[in-house]
What we know:
It contains 6 helices and 14 strands. The protein is of the alpha+beta class. The strands form 3 sheets. Strands 1, 2, 3, 4, 5 and 6 form a 6-stranded antiparallel sheet that branches. A 5-stranded antiparallel sheet has the order 12-11-10-13-14, with no helix packed on it. The site of zinc ion (ZN) has 8 residues, from loops.
Amino acid sequence: MTQSEHGGAGEKAAFVARLQAYVGGPAKPASAARDAVNQAMIRHWCDALGDTNPVYTDPAVAGRSVHGGIVAPPTMLHAWILPGLAPEPTEGDKLTELLGLLNAAGFSSVVAVNCEQEYARYLRLGDVLTQTSVIEEVTEEKQTGLGTGHFVTYVTTFRDQAGAVVGTMRFRILKFRPAQRPAAAAPAAAPATPRRPRPTVSYDNEFYWAGVQRHELLIQRCAACQQLRHPPRPMCPHCQSLKWDTVKASGRGTVHSFVVFHYPAFPGFEMPYVVAVIDLAEGTRVVTNLIKVEPQAVTVGMAVEVEFVAVDAELTLPQFRPVGA
Ligand code: ZN
């Protein structure tokens, strides 16, 4: 390799050493929660996520539970410490400094890779959290599907008013140099008619796609409590049974909700198109496209029926049209 923007091997090693000097040091300045753990924020969280567990919101039920009172959903851990719209302090913000070095070296794009939280105990109303964070790892340059980059991991530790650790959060990001697209070659190489994306067929949903091939809309049914569920998954969310069979849906239903896509354009889709949630007559819902109807004519409650559409030589999709269209 010649001396280029990528740098020689020695330069690269020096750059990695400069990045790794941050490891073990603080990521963000320590901070304290703006509010104590409180019922209002818990209620909003539960509303937003559709979590109806009464130990989070009903003092009477929570009092009789193993917790002996209201507790916060564990996954709210990070929410308690968020600074809101106030600007974060820049002094001592070593993570931003580190990411700045990567930006300056051309690793200008970022993607969150994964987040792991561990909980030491449930949080109770009135708990007041503080956080400290440490840069745990900066990798050497890695080749990824997105481009060449460095993984950066930092760990936030949450403590209560007594200084006891209540949880930790490990957050990993990839700072990468976006892969260069061969701009001139791309149009010539692309197929004349882009195809729709293929469904991901797995052990859990292969029965569904096999049914579609036979022009049957199969809905999973719990063999223990008989509740229908869709999309397919291994466990019944109502009774946790792993046993299931299927029912063949009539294909009739009504529009529960819909959106009309005008932008952005995806290869294989003709714009605009309608994505709808259908209430099936059998009592569960499917997400699908509506066809044979002008987008502006679609209404909530509209009666629809399934049509199995061969969108190309290899792919058939269950789509829905107004009844009789
Ligand atoms: Zn069940």
